[in-house]
């Protein structure tokens, strides 16, 4: 079965992103496919390259990237939600004349159409953190 | 985007202010209207407060969500539902609501509405 996930809550503030990660690994372990993870609302902070949790805590941004590399999962961050919360890639930082960018490589900024596409393309869309 | 048309129900369950999730749910369904899918929208739980007309959101530096809801019909989103028991629990009468084409449905009808969908987008 093809799954996609939509995540809305910030990592560390809420359990939702960690639960989503555990759900993702469980479904992949069972042989299902994961097409896309769409980060919306406060979940855009999952994509920060500057996240620095202490060593005894899970490093969610890194975990998403490892999962994506291993299984070829599309990690899409809603561009409108990201920009207003200060999550920018290099292109957006240049466009808006910001001093730096912090979207971890491996995540892409995309529109809400990518969420709709995930819903249409997947057999199941599972939401975390609403 | 795949060339298939699916039934997508957006479920909005949060109050209009305090968190931006209600606004972002509305943004999501308006964006979805561009992709030829069969869209519908259900307000339930605290989400029914979004439908009250007297929202003075400018007082807290926000835009009125109630003022944006009529835009749904401009985007051809006409399948709009509100959960009757959620209204009753909050003593809201359906005649107070900003959308006059909204369909008030009870829990049993919500159950069958959910069952008819390909996907739920839950906010």
Description:
The complex is a heterodimer of chains A (130) and B (123). By secondary structure, chain A is of the alpha/beta class. Chain A is built from five helices and five strands; from the N terminus they run E-H-E-H-E-H-H-E-H-E. Chain B is α/β, with parallel strands linked by helices. In chain B, helix 1 (21-32) links the parallel strand 1 and strand 2. Chain A binds chain B through residues 6, 8, 40-41, 80-81, 111-113, 115-117, 119-122, 124-125, 127, 130, and chain B through 1-2, 4, 6, 8, 13-14, 20-21, 24, 27-28, 31-32, 34-35, 37, 118-123.
Overall mean confidence score, pLDDT of chain B: 96
How would you state the average pLDDT of chain A, rounded? 97
* Poorly predicted regions of chain B: none
Q: What's the quaternary structure here?
A: heterodimer
Distance between the termini of chain B: 22 Å
Helix proportion of chain B: 25-40%
**Count of helical segments of chain A?**
5
What is the spatial order of strands in the main beta sheet of chain A?
Answer: 4-3-2-1-5
Given the structure, what is the number of helices of chain B? 5
Biggest pleated sheet of chain A: 5 strands, parallel
H/E topology pattern of chain A: EHEHEHHEHE
Sheet with the most strands: spatial strand order of chain B: 4-3-2-1-5
The proportion of residues forming helix of chain A, as a percent range, comes to 25-40%
- Percentage of β-strand residues of chain B: 15-25%
Shape of chain A: globular
Cα distance, first to last residue of chain A? 24 Å
